[in-house]
């Protein structure tokens, strides 16, 4: 069964932390493809300071030379909040049931999963791949309902992900790159150069369009 990784976010802007995580997970889990899915209206965050068009263009520049990576703009084409369940439903309808979808998220995000829209249905459509955030040193306790879900669906064997199209939770360690979009935005505002934190093509795009000034 083909494995497709899904990495969502505002990507405001995209940086090497996003890209390196996707690359490592693709290699360790033998993913056939990783889709970067910019969020138009994230329900758990304030509206991004840069337009969806600019953020999608930056992602495209960042991924265009990697044959494993692909920009997916379906959330930017929908009206209303960018709910993950809607994205998964759309992908499953488009790709069918012979593809395993692997939704990547930080382990810190999993501790708040029960606040997501229709969160109980997510594992009907995908596997969850949990990665440790480098700036999240303290483990937040899980509420009982998430602890139960983790216990029921957890596998330590990555090969299990190819057995079913959805339904597993897997944890994967990755190289820690403590880079944040917030810090990069502040760097631009201070008129400094975030070189080596993100692709040069994205830096050039930001400067050409006077973003984050």
**Nearest-integer average pLDDT:** 94
Name the CATH superfamily classification: HUPs
Distance between the termini: 46 Å
- Outline: globular
Radius of gyration: 17 Å
Compute the number of structural domains.
Answer: 1
Helix content: 25-40%
Order of helices and strands: EHEHEHEHEHEHH
> What is the top-level CATH class?
Alpha Beta
- The CATH topology turns out to be Rossmann fold
Question: Which sequence of strands runs across the widest sheet?
Answer: 3-2-1-4-5-6
CATH architecture: 3-Layer(aba) Sandwich
For the largest beta-sheet, the strand count, sense and barrel status come to: 6 strands, parallel
Q: Any low-confidence stretches, pLDDT <50, length ≥5?
A: none
Strand content: 15-25%
The DSSP helix count reads: 7
Please tally the β strands and state the result: 6
Structural class: alpha/beta
Sum this structure up briefly:
This protein has 213 residues and is α/β, with parallel strands linked by helices. It has seven helices and six strands; from the N terminus they run E-H-E-H-E-H-E-H-E-H-E-H-H.
Spell out the key features of this protein.
Rossmann fold; 7 helices; alpha/beta
Notes on the structure:
The chain has 213 residues and is α/β, with parallel strands linked by helices. The protein has a single domain (2-178), classed as HUPs (Rossmann fold), CATH 3.40.50.620. Helices cover 32% and strands 16% of the residues. The protein has seven helices and six strands; from the N terminus they run βαβαβαβαβαβαα. The protein has helices at residues 16-28, 52-63, 84-95, 107-110, 144-153, 181-189, 200-208, and strands at 2-9, 33-38, 69-71, 99-106, 127-131, 169-172. The termini are far apart.
